[in-house]
Specification:
Length: 589
């Protein structure tokens, strides 16, 4: 059941073009068939059809995603080779290092495999790179420290490694074999290793995050070694998969719906079979499990706290939380991460204020927004890039440079603009390469470069954008799923739409237009930043029907009446009823 988030990024003040739902003849026919075959309302059937669901079988899988529907893990290229190599390592007592990344996907992947392999008798150690001193992924510096501390014979790289052929070759020279589980885009040169499991090699399952691949490997190991089922409960790791998948903005489609739905169900029953670290994290995050845990709770409460230690300094504290079986230690670490998250929020706000000032000075006039400054903390630049992207409606890259002039950047994009392709285009604009390092996905990517190349990078990236991205792709748009009268909104409608959950990237919460609404009394400003509207339902200014909360609208000028709202339905925990979360408004005069 959707609930109000504890905090929300400010919405873009740019005027958006509202795109009303216009179902194709195929979608209309599909919706009619779904309504008939599954006994659904026309509204719910139409929402399913708009999400690509055509048959009753597909509709049942969407509305009731089941663990039994998960595909054979061996469909993934190299997954069998990876599993067989791990089985051999466990059987022969070889030391195994699980080498992850310092974001939620990397941390949960590392914790999942470390716990799983330890449970079946593996000699396993977990390892995460240090963001500030060793950089992202499987770097030579981090690999050297891993070997010095863990002395592995087998290294399992999770959420990294695809773009590290030289480091994998160096590991081989040291007598260490490598298995890679990674979902990042494939470079032109792949590492030579024992197994490279990356869904981009297959043409299917590209939606999986690395933690989903880790779960697939664990599933494959149980298929190869059925006797291990007595030692480990694979379902216990579903909260890890849900947290990593949602936090990494993996699309909530296909098997990701299964992972996240069942991970949330286990989080809801927090005292039944969950690890101590999960229990402590849910408690310190203030999540009310009795009201239904949502993907939004992961995105705004659990994920940021797991991310906090890696953003500020060293992600090992978050990893320890997910590995400990001591309730007292779990509570101590969870409280520590909560404090780090508040520190991260302060750093983020300071950086965002400085970046916003740069926009006001004219640095945001290009198709792509590229901002950089000495002293910006590399742990918050990704969040700031996301905020800038939402403010401008354009791809945004934020780069923090250290005193030596070395920069680490993070970017967020918009639909229709592949960020990793843009970085590749900018990099190749200079013989020998413009960037020191880059990688990522369509919607999010990272890079490193020297400060003296910032202007050249800004120029090259925007030249690529002008050539490769249509101006139409950069026009802010708001896609609506339909129109609803205020009088139709209530708990039954909210619960019906909630059957489409979990919501997130790839399955966004349905947005509706509420046309020509009337307000029963003046709006209320909340903390100077937000606005609450009180809507009437019956065509008059009396008869208050429901509230509408507009996060970040506190300083915006309300359009002249008649007023129309665009928003989704959510549950107001305080009042115990449905409200509208406003994402945009406009005057209809």
């Amino acid at each position: 059941m959707a609930k109000a988030a504890p905090s929300q990024p400010a919405p873009s003040a740019q005027e958006k073009r509202w795109i009303d739902a216009a179902p194709s003849p195929e979608e209309r026919a599909g919706a009619e068939a779904l309504a008939r075959d599954l006994a659904l309302s026309p509204l719910l059937a139409g929402l399913l059809a708009g999400r690509g669901v055509r048959t009753a079988e597909e509709g049942e899988r969407f509305l009731d995603p089941r663990l039994q529907s998960l595909s054979d893990p061996f469909r993934l290229t190299d997954l069998r080779a990876a599993a067989e190599r791990v089985v051999r390592a466990v059987a022969q007592g070889e030391k195994i290092a699980v080498f992850g990344d310092y974001d939620v996907d990397g941390i949960t992947s590392t914790a999942l495999l470390t716990r799983f392999l330890g449970s079946v008798g593996g000699k396993v150690a977990a390892f995460l790179p240090r963001r500030l001193s060793e950089g992202y992924g499987l770097t030579r510096q981090a690999a050297e420290r891993c070997l010095a501390e863990a002395s592995p014979r087998l290294l399992i790289a999770v959420d990294c490694g695809t773009s590290s052929p030289d480091e994998v070759a160096w590991l081989r020279e040291q007598g260490v074999e490598t298995v890679i589980l990674d979902h990042h885009e494939l470079p032109s040169r792949l590492p030579r290793c024992e197994a490279l499991v990356n869904p981009h090699r297959d043409g299917h399952s590209e939606y999986l995050a690395s933690v989903g691949l880790a779960f697939k490997l664990a599933h494959a190991l149980l298929k190869l070694e059925p006797r291990w089922r007595e030692r480990v409960d694979l379902k216990a790791f579903l909260p890890f998969v849900a947290m990593g998948t949602v936090s990494d903005l993996a699309p909530l489609q296909e098997e990701n719906r299964v992972f996240v739905r069942h991970g949330l169900l286990r989080l809801e029953k927090i005292d039944e079979g969950n690890f101590e670290g999960i229990r402590a994290l849910v408690k310190v995050s203030g999540i009310r499990t009795g009201a239904g845990v949502t993907a939004e709770d992961i995105g705004f409460r659990l994920g940021p706290r797991i991310n906090a230690s890696g953003r500020i300094d060293d992600a090992s504290e978050s990893l320890r939380l997910l590995l400990t079986d001591d309730p007292s230690e779990a509570e101590r670490i969870a409280r520590s991460l909560d404090g780090m998250n508040r520190e991260r929020q302060d750093l983020e706000q300071k950086t965002l204020d400085e970046a916003t000032a740069m926009l006001a000075e004219g640095l945001g006039g290009e198709p792509g927004v590229i901002l950089g400054k000495r002293g910006w903390h590399p742990g918050v630049i990704g969040i700031v890039a996301s905020r800038i992207q939402k403010m401008t409606g354009r791809p945004a890259i934020v780069i923090g440079f250290d005193e030596a002039g070395d920069g680490k950047g993070s970017g967020r994009s918009v639909e229709g603009c592949s960020l990793v392709e843009g970085l590749r285009g900018a990099h190749e604009s200079l013989p020998g390469g413009l960037l020191d390092r880059y990688g990522g996905h369509e919607m999010a990517a990272g890079l490193s470069l020297r400060v003296e190349r910032l202007e050249a990078f800004r120029t090259a990236f925007n030249e690529w954008m002008r050539a490769a991205v249509s101006p139409e792709a950069l026009r802010p748009r708001l896609r609506l799923d339909g129109e609803l009268p205020v009088s139709s909104v209530g708990e039954s409608l909210f619960r019906e739409i909630g059957r489409l959950a979990p919501f997130g990237r790839g399955n966004v919460q349905p947005l509706f237009a509420f046309r020509r609404v009337l307000q029963s009394r003046p709006p209320q400003r909340i903390k100077e930043k937000h606005l609450k509207l009180f809507l009437a339902s019956n065509g008059s200014r009396g008869g208050e029907a429901l509230d509408a909360i507009a996060f970040g609208f506190g300083t915006r000028t309300m359009p002249a009446a008649p007023l129309s709202l665009a928003g989704s339905l959510e549950w107001d925990d305080y009042k115990g009823r449905v409200q509208i979360r406003v994402v945009d408004w406009r005057g209809e005069g």
